[in-house]
Design goal:
This protein has 129 residues and is mainly alpha-helical. It has one domain. The protein has 5 helices and no strands. Helix 1 runs antiparallel to helix 2 and helix 3 packs across helix 5. The longest helix is centred in the first third of the chain and has 25 residues. The protein is elongated.
């Protein structure tokens, strides 16, 4: 998704943005509107894949790490926030996924993180002995 945004960013800023500006939509950012439009697609994919991800502890840990990177890139590289929302107020996809379903994924992810931490500390301890 980030590759798609990077590749088409010039198109949105150079070709689409002038159309918005001419039509009294200069307060809208064409690239941000595109990002806003694709986020529901990402959410559907995430929602569909979440049961498989939850069943694999290490995968859920990696998944959250990648989502955090994705949110950070949207904020820092593309200066993204949905229209009408201050950049500091947009919590990102990571927040949405971790709190959806009454925190079921959060509990699963946190358990996997604790298990990985325990396994890592046991491995280090046994290597030192």
């Amino acid at each position: 998704m980030l590759s798609l945004l990077r590749n088409y960013s010039p198109f949105f800023t150079q070709s689409v943005q002038p159309i918005l500006d001419v039509n009294d939509l200069e307060d809208r950012d064409a690239l941000h509107e595109f990002i806003t439009a694709i986020i529901p697609v990402l959410r559907r994919k995430i929602d569909r894949d979440l049961p498989v991800i939850m069943a694999q502890g290490a995968l859920s840990s990696h998944f959250v790490e990648e989502m955090i990177k994705f949110d950070t890139t949207l904020r820092e590289e593309f200066f993204y926030s949905p229209h009408g929302t201050e950049p500091s107020q947009w919590r990102g996809l990571t927040y949405e996924v971790l709190v959806q379903n009454n925190g079921v994924f959060f509990d699963s992810w946190l358990g996997a993180e604790k298990e990985c931490k325990f396994f890592f500390s046991m491995t280090i301890t046994s290597e030192l002995l």
